[in-house]
Design a protein that fits this description.
Blueprint (H helix, E strand, L loop, with lengths): L8 E7 L7 E5 L4 E8 L10 E9 L8 E5 L5
Parallel strand pairs: 1-5
Antiparallel strand pairs: 1-2, 3-4, 4-5
Length: about 80
């Protein structure tokens, strides 16, 4: 049983899609990263807002360099 409660932060880069080239730091190597972009709304009742959602999935383990997350055009 692993009782080590420390988290590991790593550098990552997004590949493909609208956030191509974006660099970030992730903790505990998540398998999926979501990126959102606000959308303009003409008349939003009650403060409703809209955001475009993009999904990036962890690729093969990296050699040297950052983790690579590839754009998943089929999600969601």
């Amino acid at each position: 049983m692993d009782t080590d409660c420390t988290t590991r932060e790593e550098h990552a880069v997004l590949v493909g899609g609208p956030a191509h080239g974006l660099r970030l730091r992730v903790t505990d190597r998540p398998t999926v990263v979501q990126v959102t972009r606000p959308c303009e709304v003409e008349t939003a009742p009650g403060g409703v807002r809209a955001e475009a959602l993009y999904v990036y999935r962890l690729g093969l383990p990296p050699g040297d360099g950052p983790l690579r997350y590839g754009y998943d055009a089929a999600s969601p």
